[in-house]
Protein: PA0069 family radical SAM protein
Organism: Flavobacterium agri
Amino acid sequence: MNSEGESDYIKGRGAQKNVKNRFFAESYEVTDDFLNYCHAEGDDADPNKTHYLEVFPKTIVNKVESPDVGMGWSMNAYQGCEHGCIYCYARNSHEYWGYSAGLDFERKILVKKNAPELLEEKLQSKNWKCATIVMSGNTDCYQPAEKKFGITRKCLEVFYKYRHPVGIITKNALIARDIDIVSKLAADNLIGVSVSITSLSEKTRMLVEPRTATIKKRLDTVKLLSQNGVPVNVMIAPVIPGINSHEVLPLAKAAADAGAVSIAHTIVRLNGQIAEIFTDWIHKAMPDRAEKVLNHIKHVHGGTLNDSRWGQRMRGEGEFAEQVHAQMRLARKKFFEGKTFPKLNQDLYEQYRDGQLSLF
C-alpha cells in the first residue's frame, strides 16, 4: 500500500494516483490513520469506481487554434475518458472542471446530454460556414460512456440530417454499432474516421491504454469501416521511444492490410501534469526500463518531458525523431502508394441547412 491507500499497481487504470490540481491553492492527502481505520472496519479506502456527472454547456463546437493539429473545429460529448491512456494530452483539461488530471480524469466522466441539441443549433445558425467538425478533438466520443448514453450516435444523426461533414477519432470498436448511420454519411462523402492503434502487443496495450478495445477489434473495425465505404486513417499516436517505437512498420502494414487509406503519427509529449503522472506510472508498470524510456522522451524534446512548442511538440527533434519520420516515409511508400484520405463533401450542407432538402 502507498500513502493514498492504493495498491502498488491499480489494474484497469492508466494513472496510478491523483496529482494536485494546478489551479487549487489547497490539496489533500490520505493519512495512515484513515487507512488503518478503513482496514479495521473492513472498508475500501478507494473503491476505484467510475462516476458519470451530467454537465450543461452552452456551446458544443469549439474552434481549434493550434496550428499543428489537423482540424479546424472540434466537439466533445464527454470530458474525461475511461480509456485511461497514460499519455493522453487531454488529462490536463480536467483541471479546468475542478478535478485531477490523474485518476479523476478516468473515473469522473462529465456527460453532455444536450450535445445533439447544441450541435443542431450551431448547424442552423445563419453565421455558420460549413467546415468539417471533428468528434473527439479532446476525448474519445466512443469511450465506454457512449454505450450507456448514446450521445455520439445522436450527434451523427444530426450531422446526417444537415448533410454536414464530420470527422471521428477513436480507439474503440463501439463505432461498429453505428455502422448504419456511418454508412449513410459515407455514401455522400460526409465522414472520415481515424482509428488510433499504438501497438500490436496486447500486453503493451493493456498497460498503456487499459480500457480500450483490443488491437484485433480495432483492426476489425478498420476493415468493417473500409468495407462500408468509409475512408479510414490509422493514427500511430503517440510513438513512445522504448515502448512501441519498434512497431511503426508492422503497424503500418497491419493498417494497410485492414483497408486503411492513410497513416499518421505523433511523438509522445508529456505536457502539464502528464509528466508527473507518466513518470509515476512507468516506474510502477515498467520499472526495468523506466529511466531509459524517460531519457529517450527527453532526448526528442530538447531535454525536457514537457514540450509545448507549436510545430515541434508533436514531431519531436533529434536523431530518434528523425528515425521515426524516416520509417513513416518508408511505410507510406511501401504500403500506401497511390492512396489518399479524401477531402470531405461540403457542398450539400447549404441545401439542407434548414434540416430538409431545399428546392430553391
Remarks:
- Residues 1-7 have pLDDT under 50 and may be disordered.
- The first helix runs from residue 32 to 41.
- The first strand starts at residue 51 and ends at 54.
- Residues 32-342 form a domain with the TIM Barrel fold (CATH 3.20.20.70).
